[in-house]
Amino acid sequence: MGAEDESASLRVEEDPMIPTPSAQDPAPSLGLELLMSGYQQADEQAASALIDRVSPLLLRYFWVHAFHRGDAEDLLQDTWMRIHRARHTYRKGSPVLPWIFAIARHTGLDHYRKARRVEIREMQVDPLPEIAHPPSDLPPGGSDGKIAELDAILAHLPASQREVILMLKVTGMTVEEVARATASSAGSVKQKAHRAYQKLRVVLGREARDK
Amino acid sequence: MRKDEIDRILDQAVRDLPSGDDRAAIGHVQRAILKDLKPARPLPALWVFTLAFVSLFVAFAVASASTLGLHGIRVLSMGQRWSIFSLLLFTGWLAAVSSARAMRPASGMPLGWLALVSAGGAFPVLFALVFRGYGTLNFVHEGVPCLVAGLCVAIPTGLATVWILRRGFVMDWSRSGLGAGVLAGLTGLFMLELHCPNLKAIHVMVWHVAVVVVSGMAGFAIGMIADHFRGRIPERSTRP
Hints:
heterodimer, A: mainly alpha, Rna Polymerase Sigma Factor, Chain: A, 0% strand, B: mainly alpha, 2 domains
């Protein structure tokens, strides 16, 4: 199967996983592009509705990325502060999700770099205490266990392929949108998705046989 | 294992994820954003900034060469002028697009490295084709003033480019610094082609092209330092 066929089926256009606006939503019929334009013009209702609709997607993305609820919430808040400072760079009518996820991706990268710097500078003097609930022992039925399940599947992939699969599946963006968010070409995204599927085919197939 | 089975496993794992509807966290964000909500004037289109960067590149080069004297262009033949300045405009446009894209998230692939490789690769080849002379007499003595003059033009161009870049929202200063450095270096090269009457191939290939390479790498290094320090400054928190 070619890379093109494979990634075409990765699109999740019918179910973009953006929560359906509630009845109290002041602008239920407005698309994200209109909400973003309203946010640029300081429309409080549009800003509030945009945060309401996009934050769950960002949280899910960060949960799998950071695999720690506290970190994910910090990353969500940091991302929104950056979105707020960058809101003048949004171009009316262009897709909102790639623009938001490009900022979210960089927030995650900065967070990772900062964590690495701290890790390098920290000197371990005592043995670390035992973790009460290491990730691998999380209850499979709980929400943390579900995050761990997806994390365990994606752990077999290199960071770049993992990111592409995560964006395609968790955020529901199209290949072209993921390419915009990751500052790469659609061809490169398709190739990464194709390679990720090849690797998963081998790994998951082996696991299924072992079971 | 078939592809649709992998799809099914991934889709199931994603469906099982918690909904992400964390009202407390979302509420914090909403309060922080709404408290500080003012209208924001949208940034002009990318082509406007591309044009601004290209204008900056041409204006700085022509102005500085006019000040120093247009001795170089007078000794070039028509064919040499056409080929050198066409390539300069093309690589300058590439670096300008790269800088304009750096100002807006999700605006396309960064082209800074492509601009550097194009300039660093194409100019020596072109100069080897259109110029003659590989004698190394006075090689350093004649070359250093050209490198210094090119970098002296590149520095203000780089500063002006960064001033424009700050109108947007730059996420990756190392890549943006590279693009800005290449654009600034090309301005220095443009000035040297207009000003320097030394047409020895070895001189032009080494000392003139070095302005672009040094400027591009300096831009990248300064951008990396900026990224490093930005990471150390804590972001303003939305927590109450």
